[in-house]
Write a structure and sequence with these properties.
Radius of gyration: 25 Å
InterPro entries: Cation_efflux, Cation_efflux_CTD, Cation_efflux_CTD_sf, Cation_efflux_TM, Cation_efflux_TMD_sf, CDF_Transporter
Main location: membrane
Strand content: 5-15%
Distance between the termini: 43 Å
Keywords: Cell membrane, Membrane, Transmembrane, Transmembrane helix, Transport
Domain Cation efflux protein transmembrane: 10-202
CATH topology of the largest domain: Alpha-lytic protease prodomain-like
CATH architecture of the largest domain: Up-down Bundle
CATH class of the largest domain: Mainly Alpha
Transmembrane segments: 7-28, 34-55, 75-97, 109-129, 149-171, 177-194
Number of domains: 2
Strand order of the largest sheet: 3-2-1-4
Largest sheet: 4 strands, mixed
Structural class: alpha+beta
Number of strands: 4
Length: 295
Amino acid sequence: MTPTESTAWTSLGVGLLVLSLKGAAWWLTGSTALFADMLETVVNVAAASAALAAVRYSAMPADENHPYGHTKVEYFSAVLEGTLILVAASMILQEVYGAIFNPRVPDQPVVGIALSTVATVINGSWATILRRRGRRLGSPALVADSKYLMSDVVTSAGVIVGVGLVAATGLLWLDPLMAGVTAVMILVSGARLLRESVGGLMDEAVGPEDLAAIRGTVSAHAEGAIEAHDLRTRHAGRITFVEFHLVVPGAMPVSEAHDICDRIETALKERLGNAVITIHVEPEGKAKHSGVVVL
């Protein structure tokens, strides 16, 4: 089992534990806000299951039908998670609408708040660990899962405060209000997640910081070449694809040009981690006098 898959299994287990705690909190209190919080965690569990499936599939090696590998499937998992978030938000808003006209006093609020607090602490701790592991392993599915878990922590904290105020003040309208705020916050989270996931599916380039690092690495390790131009990058799950044209003197032997390419590839892989580098060598007559100038 790979570290990424092991992390995905752990995330699913944590999600089920948190769901059981929040489900118990809602069942004991009947609070609309705690129902919204529980429903958000249902999405967490569904998303964790999708992430696990995506991680397992993405680990499959390249084959004849998928020569670039299967890593992009993780973006589909993130898109699914974003869609589930939007569905959960609409269900919460529907529940809020009914609660506004028929408010009720939460039963056993102290016990419900205690259970929800324990669940939130567990969620927050795991979200922090998951984000670090997801970034280290280069897994969009795990990173997406961690971001949504952290937004869940924020909304859960608000729900806990709201239910506590309802119990302390008797202002029943606070309960559906906090549920509505929860729905709006997860709508924003879902929309942002969908935007990032679609960017991956559309072969969005690396960010400005990584692009600057790639250009600097090529320039510093291409001694003997003249320039590099037509640099293109894209992400596919945990793999970064980099390709460009490298201009060398026309009289340079193929073996020397190949050595330069090997040097650049090694340096880029050390900088980027899991990367696929494609370099097209051209004679000096193809120079565009633009792009990366070799130091």
